[in-house]
Amino acid sequence: MRTILFLALAVLCTAGAAQDYPSKPITMVVPFPPGGVADIVGRPLAAVMQKSLKQPIVVVNRTGAGGAVGMAAVAKSAPDGYTILMGLSSISIFPVSDRINGKEPPYELKDFASIALVTADPTVLVVRPAPVYATPVYPAAPGVSVRFSFPL
To answer: Does some domain include residue 132?
Structure first.
């Protein structure tokens, strides 16, 4: 994670007038409630960034509409690097979803510039083990096996 953080900070520090960045506190918007995945990842990341950048990183949970409220707030903020988003992959869904439902999206993906991939978590579907499920092991590749369950 330190390598990713270093690369993220390097990108931030070389953009625009990098000589004096950051010269004031940075706001990290977490568009989900406290205690969620983005918050649990964002707060420790903010602490490390604060030490490295020697400026406060203020974490603000701006919740609502499945994260769209906070994401839209960051999209509309000044493009100066002082408001950053601790987002999840749902960031890409809302503009498409809004168009499908006949609404104007509050932001577009082009309103954001990627800084770093902070985590790469798989999405899994799990069930509590029970005798009504079979759990075969299938070879996925030489030396690698995959387990999944299905009802008997």
So the answer is: no
